[in-house]
Amino acid sequence: MTVARAAVNVVRLGRISYRSALKVQQQHIKQHLDSSSTSPNTLLLCEHEPVYTVGIRRAPYPPEEEQRLKALGADFFRTNRGGLVTFHGPGQLVCYPVLNLACFKKSVRWYVCELERTVIKMCSKFGIEASTSPDTGVWVGDNKICALGIHCGRYITSHGLALNCNTDMSWFDNIVPCGIVGKGVTSLSRELGRDVPTEEAVPKLLEAFTEQFNCTLTYN
Predict the structure, then answer these.
(1) What confidence score (pLDDT) does residue 178 get?
(2) 51 assigned binding-site residue
(3) Signal sequence: where (predicted)?
(4) 178 part of the active site
(5) Of 146, 152, 178, 215, which one is the catalytic site residue?
(6) Which CATH number is associated with domain 6-213?
(7) CB-based contacts of 139: which residues, under 8 Å, 6+ apart?
(8) Any idea where the domains of the chain sit in the sequence?
(9) How confident is the prediction for the chain on average, in pLDDT?
């Protein structure tokens, strides 16, 4: 018996504040959880205005650190995703999959691994050899090229991944990205030695996603 491929709708949000993108995610999550709704699985693609975000951690992020980061000209948000502190900003392709894992596989561990494999496959399309490590995300050597942090409630996913394309990497100098000491960050542009805007990365990411998740894409 042939299993039908799940359909995933791609929504381009453009450059958008983190707060606004969070509201869009919440609307899609609510539709999934509403039993009377037939909300589609969705990939929200965007770039953010400069913002530092903090995921779930054992100890609260110090208020003085929050004020220091805000003074740099960035927003700051505490979120319910996994992971620690990271940066989002222009030149970074952010992908928020809002998926019902019942349409794929009801396993959060499987889902996280598939996201990582999607980014690794996308990097290979650029000729970049990327990999996973004991730390989350996707790496080129000891430098993280894509951060990953998700939330999953009742098998509905939110948050997602942030791929550095031609990001101003100096924003990361103000934090210990994802709380990992002794490792750095990189970007498609840095690895390839040329400017790689987010628009160049989008089709390769979507192609890798359809291959890895065995789905078909529709476009809003």
Answers:
(1) 66
(2) no
(3) none
(4) yes
(5) 178
(6) 3.30.930.10
(7) 130, 131, 132, 133, 145, 183
(8) 6-213
(9) 93
